[in-house]
Amino acid sequence: MSELIDAVIDGQDVRVAPGTTIFEAAQRIGVTIPTVCHLPPQAPAGVCRVCCVEVRIGDRPPERAMAAACARPVEAGMVVTTNSEKIATARRTLVELLLADHPSPCARQRESQDCELESRAIEVGARADRFPTSGAHPPPIPGWTATDDSHTHIAVDHAACIMCDRCVRACNDIAHNDVIGRTGKGFHSAITFDAGRPMGDSTCVSCGECLVSCPTGALMNKGFGDALIPGQPVPASILVGLRGPDGGAPLFEGIAPRFLEKTLGDIGRNDGAVVQRNFAAGEVICTEGDFGSTAFYVMSGAVEVSITAPISRVRNDAGPFARFARKMKSLLTSDADADRDPAPGLTIPIDAPVDLSRARPVATLGAGELFGEMTCLSFYPRSATVKAIEPTVVLEILRPVLQILRRSKAFAAQVDARYRERTLETHLRSIPFLADLPSDFVDRLRERVVLQSFEPGQVICAQGDPSDGFYLVRLGFVKVSQRFPGGELVLNYHGRGGFFGEIGVMSGAPRMATCTAVDHVDVVRIPADEFRLMLDRFADVGEAFRAEADRRDRQNAEHGALTASMDLGEFLDQGLMQAQNLLVLDLDRCTRCDLCVQACATAHDGASRLIREGLRYDNYLVATSCRQCRDPLCMLGCPVGSIRRRDTLEIQIEDWCIGCAVCAENCPYGNITMHEFDVTDSGTHAGRRKAATHVKATACDLCKNLDANQDPSCVVACPHGAAIRVENPREFFASQKTVSRPEHS
Amino acid sequence: MALIDRRQRRWALFAAMGLILSIGFYVPYHRAAIDGPSGSSDIGLGFGIAAAALMLFEALLNVRKRFPTWAIGRAETWLKGHIWLGLLIVPLVLFHSGFRFRGTLAVTLTLVLAAVIASGIYGLVLQQFLPRMMTRWSPGETVYEQIPHVVHLLQLEAYEIAAAVCGHLPEAVAEENALTRVAADRKGVRRRSVPFRQFACVEGSEPIRRFYLEEVRPFLHGDGRHGPLAESDERRVRMVEAIGRTVPPALQEAVRDLGDVAAERRDLAVQRRLHHWLHGWLFVHVPLTAAMLVLLAAHVVLALRYAY
Fold this sequence. Notes:
The structure holds two protein chains of two kinds.
Chain A: E1 5-9, E2 12-16, H1 22-28, E3 52-57, E4 67-68, E5 78-81, H2 85-100, H3 107-112, H4 116-124, E6 147-148, E7 154-157, H5 166-174, E8 180-183, E9 190-193, H6 209-213, E10 219-221, E11 232-233, H7 236-241, H8 257-266, E12 274-279, E13 284-286, E14 294-300, E15 302-306, H9 320-332, E16 347-349, E17 355-357, E18 362-366, E19 370-371, H10 373-378, E20 385-388, E21 392-398, H11 399-407, H12 409-429, H13 439-448, E22 450-454, E23 459-461, E24 469-475, E25 478-484, E26 487-494, E27 499-500, H14 502-507, E28 514-517, E29 521-527, H15 528-537, H16 539-564, E30 582-586, H17 595-603, E31 611-617, E32 620-624, E33 643-645, E34 651-653, H18 662-666, E35 673-681, E36 690-698, H19 713-717, E37 723-726, H20 729-735, E38 743-744
Parallel strand pairs in A: 1-5
Antiparallel strand pairs in A: 1-2, 3-4, 3-5, 6-7, 7-10, 8-9, 11-12, 12-21, 13-20, 14-19, 14-21, 15-18, 15-20, 16-17, 22-29, 23-28, 24-27, 24-29, 25-26, 25-28, 30-32, 30-37, 31-32, 31-38, 33-34, 35-36
Helix pairs in contact in A: 2-4, 12-13, 15-16
Chain B: H1 9-32, H2 42-66, H3 75-97, H4 104-137, H5 147-166, H6 173-178, E1 181-184, E2 191-194, H7 206-221, H8 233-244, H9 252-280, H10 282-307
Antiparallel strand pairs in B: 1-2
Helix pairs in contact in B: 1-3, 2-3, 2-10, 3-4, 4-9, 4-10, 5-7, 5-9, 7-9, 8-9
């Protein structure tokens, strides 16, 4: 062990080990040296110089330049003065210079009066207005903005940043995340995330170390105001030590405790971001179709997840006469493509780590399971009703905390492990082609699949990229689009249970389409080699995927050809360009008899799916009826995946719709309507049945459920030939003699 | 494009061929009949059966309309058949009777048939022109059943326009009360009322007040067919412009808006009137068809009872 060093600080003798800084030595004897940029246990940087002290070594004259106490090691015979008129003047000037590049008061000072720089200014008697303010920072790199609100929890205000380096050291040296760095020189310097990305788009894991390190309002905790939830708040001190039901790693491992404290109420505004709720057996935790903003983590007990809306009424049956007529017709014709729409999977995707069986939509979740993520992250309606089946304790979590959890490596590892262990198999089997995949191969995939998360707008794979795997959507919605000479065509949206990427992997060609996360998306990627191995080893699976790939290929080519022939600029305002099947009424022929509407109602249990009003183009009326848009925005956000595209690209709403109305709100043209259906409900008491009303979404299905080969009922029923189905609006309207400016009727 | 166009050609040809064929049967039969053609002769009876079958077919159009999902052909095809085969009934009935009508029942049946066909032709002629007129003359048309509701909304809109510049109008308290809106949430569970916002009277708005209370409001509450605002576009616009000149420039937009509301009301009145014309003939055609079928049944029964 090295010899100790003797020194004197403010007249007090001190003996310290070699390498000890003046700041540490002074602390030891109770002398406080003010600092701004220094925050133990971070290594000193000595950039602010506020901790300046006068130093004299032995009999030598005092050093001309003051030393930074945080960085200067103590030397033998060192005599240090930490407080003198000269030092006070220097510190005051240094703080005033820092204040010249700092808005005073900054946001933090305004909100919580704890901006360290401004506190220091008060201590040393510095005036914020002594030096003229430096004005706006010029951008150090292209695309840089002075404020960055992209992160879910942390607001960045570069104007308040004094380049103290504390966040950089916290991120790199303490948390070892290596996200924050410096860019630019001198007055042009600034902190950056991943060398120039907005913080929200960076690889930041929301550990919060930077936020708790920042001395000013440059990195601020975002509040979430009044969005508090009832229940027993779980304070940060308990939450930090909280472990999953298996007693493994703490849920919030790797997250700075002070950050949690700040997020959960240290500054008094976020109490109740996580609450503990206890449910007795039979108590309902959440109800399908309700809107919410929280997720639930089951601490103990078990819950039953179910869809209680009766599965019926949206798809319609043709009736006995038409069934008979179709049967007779089928004997006379051999149209193999009579019903090209394959039955959708046997499961209903919901916002939980399980899928529900269509035959019996009930499942159980136990301790350690997280559900309601989509509702919490993207504010989708609850997809199912959840009730406790035994005394159950859950943590109800608001979005900011869930975001922290999702970014936490430890928690993500825990959830992913559970997913691989419990859910992957059922999720894979929800794809009809993989329903019979042998268990040993599923076990093999369990170890080899990659679980990935994407933020809204992030590209999962781009058109032209090498095909590196097959993707299965686990959470959120993925947009699949293709570039054509005429513009971009949205081919589909995939929700939970949807899959993509098989065409490229099978053909070995680059990606044919770009897949983008519409909201918070989790996917399972089966690496290309494993996927090919699966296809080779199981002939029927390979055959099914090849048939599916051919079908998608054909479909994309057809629609690509159509898009290429159209100028996407036209009709854009009216949304008609998006339409691929428009109901147009020739008003010169239409006698307004409303037989089209009556036919629609007759074909659909008395609920018409068209309204004889809408845009007018000269003598043509574009009726309010589903246009089967090329970019079906209505498909986004369905919490149970009951709205989908048929093979022929028509929009189809399935019977298990829970009536949340998200699709109706998403439709820009008001073409999806909510209808009330009378049903006999079993109610909550066994043995009792009562009449009830359930709301379900309905949209024109082109009467494909009645007879796939027949024209829609509205067209068939029009005695005057005024109802026309138009598949290419631009071509149709261009072919008419005169088409005037549209007007609303 | 109207109902009778080139799309009808096949059916017209088919009906013409039917006519030629029946003439081809009738002429030699007429020449060969010693006592002249008779409905009870084999050929005459054949004509009668064909005419009766067509009458039944005509009536089946209504059945087709009631079961739109049945895969039994498009209603358009049925209507074409209804029109052209309906016309073919006339020569068939004449050939059946040999151009002689004897007996009260036969005469009544023939007269009712004539009325049915005449009303049908009348309706067809109306349908040929009125839809186009409605499209041109009533650009603000809505679903017929919605007209009262839309008129009510127009009444409220006019009040809002007038009250925004004239302030509270005690003469139109009904509109003000109605404007206390009821907003409902998505599932119609919670409702809340919003009081109508009160405005102050703007200087120079007196002409607007008078225009609203004396012209626009009575017009909106009436049938939309009487008064200067029901006049042609040109006259109505002149009137609105004249009132506009009596108010400060800042208030002229309110006058124009009131004029637009009145124009919409007029459009709806035109739509209602044309709608009545377009569908009113069915109140004659359909009951007469029903009567014709009853008479036909009686004719068949009596013919079978006494002729054989």
